[in-house]
What does this fold into?
Amino acid sequence: MPQHKSAIKRLRQNAKRREHNRARRSKLRTLIKKVQTANDKETAEKHLKEAVSFIDRLSTKKIIHPKTGARKKSQLTLFVNNL
It folds into this structure.
């Protein structure tokens, strides 16, 4: 455990950020699953729009790597176009 006041604060901040980022990544996985399990193309396109927007946000904030975001968007778009 940290002894210095600044290190204690850093520990609290890191824990808070970790939980925040984990929740965002979990939501991302849920959105991707919604796109992949959609019954028809219209529903998939609606979910795709939401997922792409969320992926862009996470990439911008460096919660996921920008190239990972680009790859996921590409894969989802290809999946929906092939429906």
